[in-house]
Amino acid sequence: MNSTRISQLFDIQYPIVQGGMVWVSGYKLAAAVSNAGGLGLIGAGSMYPDVLRTHIQKCKKATSKPFGVNVPMLYPNIDEIIAIIIEEEVKIVFTSAGNPNLWTSHLKKHGITVVHVVSSIKFALKAQAAGVDAVVAEGFEAGGHNGREESTTFTLIPMVKEQLHIPLIAAGGIATGRGMLAALVLGADGVQVGSRFAASLESSAHIDFKKKVVAVSEGETVLTLKEIAPVRMIKNEFYTQIEKLHQEHKSVEDLKKLLGKRRLKRGMFEGDLVDGMLEIGQVAGLIHEIQSAKEIVEEMVKEYKEVLQEKF
Length: 312
What we know:
The chain has helices at 5-10, 27-35, 49-62, 78-87, 104-109, 121-130, 153-163, 177-185, 195-198, 207-215, 237-247, 252-259, 263-269, 293-311, and strands spanning 16-18, 40-43, 67-72, 92-96, 113-118, 134-138, 144-145, 168-171, 190-193, 221-224, 231-234. It is of the alpha/beta class. It has one domain: Aldolase class I (TIM Barrel, Alpha-Beta Barrel). It starts with a helix and ends with a helix.
């Protein structure tokens, strides 16, 4: 596979970035992806500061390859999280769910490569103006929290590419070598893969959640809770309760009360498939088995090369 601006930026073999997802992206997954030639990310969004520090330290021992940390900007202990990242000399940070102007310059002063996750051209340009080194543009097919615009990856990537001069990473609906090739043809310099790694052997998600992801077929995920923050999840009893409140025209406060504070942990980390929130992307329909991160990367690269040779 030819080198791209993303593989050069991160000094990695393949332009494949593992999504820094909450409750599934611990050091074991990040190190495994990095060791396989991609870029592994630790998901700080579900970690207390001291837990994040431990994961960073363990990741350093588990891989000599580059890895990074994903930080949701709305994290309540963001100051402490950023301080730990700098103290532990993390070289790559992906920021999301917030204003890139808040921390980009501070992180870059410490020699950190900064990437920001966006869901629209507008926010891609804001991230570029803030001085980030690259942007992840995520289509609405993606699992977890999502953009309100509902732009698909297939349309979002070329539109962002027209406006951007910094490297571009495509996300949302990408889990195969074919998907990676399509994203690069559309103008991306690399891809971010979330759902397939969420169901990997090294993911810290509950085994029942992983099995559920493998069992998901077309039409079994949905984007909902747009009044609070759009999120894509698997349809289950919890989702049915959300829809009931929608049909009854209940308030945002009623929705927040139903959501509570532990729904995501219950679903993805503890394996409550009934009342937990089960975040995953539409591409789950293409995930047919629980594999190691190494197998996933190797399979994607192999398929990419085969299809490239076949089609071009």
